[in-house]
Amino acid sequence: MTDDLTLEEAMEDLVSAEDFLSYFEIDFDPSVVHVNRLHILQRYHNYLSKEVLPEDEAAQRAVYTSLLTKAYQDFVASDALTEKVFKVFHMHEPQTQFVPLTSITVNKKDAA
Fold it and tell me: What is the number of domains present in the chain?
């Protein structure tokens, strides 16, 4: 049971956005999570990467809960296209690169 595990051990067992939200006892709308689960987890990861976590496990739990709540709320109030969590959303028009035909063919004098 997760009550017997340390925070770190328990978090290793969490695999989905729903698992994280349930573990940290954050109320959530399944329909919001269903469409944004990867975005929520990535945003959560981004928030965590900017934090210096306290040593105390209870304080860590409070930080984790706060940041996960914030990540979830980002997608309650907005959507993935607006939030642009993943790099693909930051790309503009497809980039084209000119490659001259001579650079991809073998010159007869070089082949000898």
Answer: 1
Contacts by 31-37, CB closer than 8 A, 24 or more apart: 32/72, 32/75, 32/76, 33/72, 35/80, 36/75, 36/79, 36/80
- Helix (H/G/I), strand (E/B), else coil: 40: helix
33, 17 Cβ separation under 8 angstroms: yes
Q: What pLDDT band is residue 67 in, cutting at 50, 70 and 90?
A: very high
- Calpha distance 83→72 (Å, rounded): 12
pTM above 0.85, yes or no: no
Helix axes 57-77, 30-49, angle to 10 degrees: 130
Instruction: Please give the residue range of the domain that contains residue 51.
Output: 2-111
Contacts of residues 66-70 at CB distance under 8 Å and 24 or more positions apart, as own/partner, are 68/20, 68/21, 68/24, 68/26, 68/44, 69/24, 69/26
